[in-house]
Amino acid sequence: MRNHGFTIWFTGLPSAGKSTLARLLQETFEEAGLSVAILDGDEVRQRLTKGLGFTKEDREENIRRIAYVSKLLTQVGAIAIVAAISPYQRSRDRARAEIGNFIEVYVECPLQTCMNRDVKGLYAKAQKGEIKNFTGISDPYEPPLHPDISVRSDREVPLENIKTIIEHLVTHNLVSTSLVSHILREDSESMSRNIHERTTTNQWAI
User: Fold this and answer.
1) Which of 14, 17, 60, 185 is the most exposed place for a label (fewest CB within 10 A)?
2) Tens of pLDDT along 154-167?
3) What 3-state class would DSSP assign to 203?
4) Total domain count for the chain?
């Protein structure tokens, strides 16, 4: 089966686990010999969208630029993996409309769990008013109404979430079963073993 380009868009609260899953998925695709690029929200803000703030208008512009790059990657047959909070439904809908072959993955995680994982202490600073417009504290997060995939990072280890995503991609003929069969064959025991080899002690630190 020929692999066409598509974009996988991870959305969720800060510290929900978007970047962790994006990097594991990138590794899975690279091991399968697929062309893949990752657009991580924090890294994008240091380069592509440097200078933008965190007002609603700036957040929407940030997502607009990420969506444009993702569209270009998708058009040339690559896999674009986006890990961005992207808190507004309208911005995500626009990204879907522009990119076309778009898979929205909602990384669902309770706010308190995200706060407990926050090794940078950003939530604490936001609660003290030291950081303005912080999603989940002083700025809203609008959960996807109809995500293509929904995973619970508070209930499953990262590789279990990856397996859920891969199964969706295979079912919708976006990737060949033969390319990712090693992931689909993994059981809970082997996932638990591999998770210590492929992630840090705090699996959801990012």
Assistant:
1) 185
2) 999 998 999 999 99
3) coil
4) 1
